[in-house]
Specification:
Distance between the termini: 61 Å
Number of strands: 33
Helix content: 10-25%
Strand content: 35-45%
Number of helices: 5
Radius of gyration: 23 Å
Amino acid sequence: MELTQNFLRGKNPCAMGYRWFVRNNLAGGDYQAAMDTQVGAGRVEDARWLLENFGSTNSVLELEHLEADNFVYAGTLIVHGDVRVPGQLLVGRSLQVGGGIRAGKLEAGEEIQCGGAIFADELLQAGGNVKAAWSVEVQGNIRAEDLRTGWELRSGGQVRLKGNAHIGQEVEVQGDMQCAKGLRAGNAIQVQGLLEVGHGIASNSHIKCGNHIQAGWGIKALGDIRAACSIRTGETLQADGEITAGPGYGVFAGMSVQMDAWPDCAWVRALKKPEALISGFWEGRPAFA
């Protein structure tokens, strides 16, 4: 894509960024080359503005390794080895990495696939799915479609997914965790904020939440289910340990099921009956496999 001054002016750029663009003779040049020049001059936000306003491209860049202070690419980026970008790594389409990724802020317009672990300081964001063969650890927020990890998921901020989360080991989230579909973890799930899932939650260990736990379908844990506030499910609720809501809060199962159907579709199973069980059919101790 070729950029002209009139074309750029039509997007209402900031005055400072436009003057810099003209002063450096970027008009009439290649779109990606202009962003490379901006990033090289430390004007990463200007390059971001170009990408956001002019969109992604179908170009593909393949590298053996990537190490840079910041990096912005409008197409698909394929890196066979490791990626080390302490600043911003922004990709217009997909990011495919054979090794691990370390970035300050990691964003892709489509999917992110990583053959190792993903570490990000401020943000991990993808317009599509994020898949890491090892762990995903982000000090800030995570936003994506589906999220799949072979190992643990750790976030110091909020996690918001438009689809499912399949986590191989532990989940540790300091803020809210919201999944429009399901959440499945091979080990414990610990969320300090609200835990809200549109479908079901399954954990091979305990589930612990510092706020409400809400699931549109059911919740199953091989350990305890404990919340500082209420526990609410649309259908069933099962723990091989105890189910405990916070002081003054209730445990609600079958909120999406007619009361006549509770014995079949909204049963509650645990080591002992939850003290604050408000709705659902108490069935008793779960049957161990």
